[in-house]
Design brief:
Blueprint: H1 15-25, E1 34-35, H2 36-43, H3 47-60, E2 63-66, E3 69-72, H4 82-87, H5 89-104, E4 107-114, E5 117-125, E6 139-141, H6 146-153, H7 157-166, H8 180-193, E7 196-199, E8 206-214, E9 220-229, H9 235-257, H10 261-267
Antiparallel strand pairs: 1-3, 2-3, 4-5, 4-9, 5-6, 7-8, 8-9
Helix pairs in contact: 1-2, 1-3, 2-3, 5-9, 6-8
Length: 269
């Protein structure tokens, strides 16, 4: 898998930056989980240099590790499409999300947890929300979203404790839940029921229902949601009309994602 990168650097070019970007580019759709040796060979740099680059990227939140392997984190979306290319999420989920959006005449999305925020990694829509328009790479505070609560309900006790220690519970609307005790209760309710529905908390007019997406080992690695305008549908009707449909699509996506185990490794860290 080694790739030769014969380049003639400019006299004023930053070699360190170039090496760091070469490390990021080492991750591809076919090689999403790499060892230090793999990365050094692919980037064409010494292992010691690759290690320093990886430690820096890890400190900045762009890279994580699982045992001896390194993986990209969702934050790398800020630099470009490397994360989506390595995970191949759009290809895996496009049909499911488009079908869900057509059936509901609304929006559907797949999100992952990154620190205290959720990140959109795939999305389809036949309706534009006036108050809020999300796209792949959009980030929102987890506490005010249905997908955030689903994802927080799926993490372990230690990670949930870290979340409450570091998150800021800003009041985005008058209906945003900002009290930690109340939020813990909602997350626990979500863990028991298997879904979360949020109305007018992220933005006025936005109502969304979310369910977890699982890996082959039964771990929550993403959240699938359907969203609409709160003037068009109530919480009760949203759950009654779409929960079963959303759960069925989640099962299909979970089955498809089982062939891409590196997604679960990245999402669980």
């Amino acid at each position: 898998m080694a790739r030769t990168r014969a380049t003639t650097p400019h006299r004023e070019a930053m070699g360190g930056l170039a090496k760091g970007l070469a490390v990021v580019r080492a991750f591809t759709r076919d090689h999403a989980a790499l060892t230090l040796s793999d990365i050094a060979r692919s980037a064409g740099i010494p292992a010691a240099t690759a290690r320093r680059c990886l430690l820096t990227l890890e400190d900045l939140g762009y890279v994580t590790r699982n045992g001896r392997s390194f993986l990209l984190r969702p934050k790398v979306l800020e630099l470009g499409a490397a994360y989506l290319e390595s995970m191949n999420i759009e290809h895996v989920t496009r049909t499911h999300l488009e079908e869900l959006a057509r059936t509901t005449s609304d929006s559907a999305a797949l999100c992952v947890l990154d620190g205290v925020e959720i990140v959109y990694v795939a999305r389809a829509s036949v309706r534009t929300l006036v108050r809020l328009e999300a796209h792949v790479g959009s980030r929102f505070p987890a506490h005010a979203t249905s997908t955030g609560r689903v994802l927080l309900a799926g993490v372990g006790a230690d990670r949930l404790h870290r979340y409450f220690d570091t998150a800021r519970f800003d009041r985005l609307t008058e209906r945003t839940v900002t009290e930690p005790a109340r939020l813990r209760t909602l997350i626990e309710d979500c863990r028991r029921s298997g879904y979360s529905v949020v109305e007018d908390e992220l933005a006025y007019g936005v109502i969304a229902l979310a369910v977890p997406v699982f890996d082959a080992r039964g771990r929550v690695v993403a959240a699938l949601n359907t969203s609409s305008h709160s003037r068009r549908i109530t919480k009760t009707k949203l759950v009654r009309d779409r929960l079963t449909m959303l759960q069925q699509v989640s099962q299909q996506i979970s089955k498809d994602l089982a062939t891409f185990p590196w997604l679960s490794l990245s999402a669980q860290t």
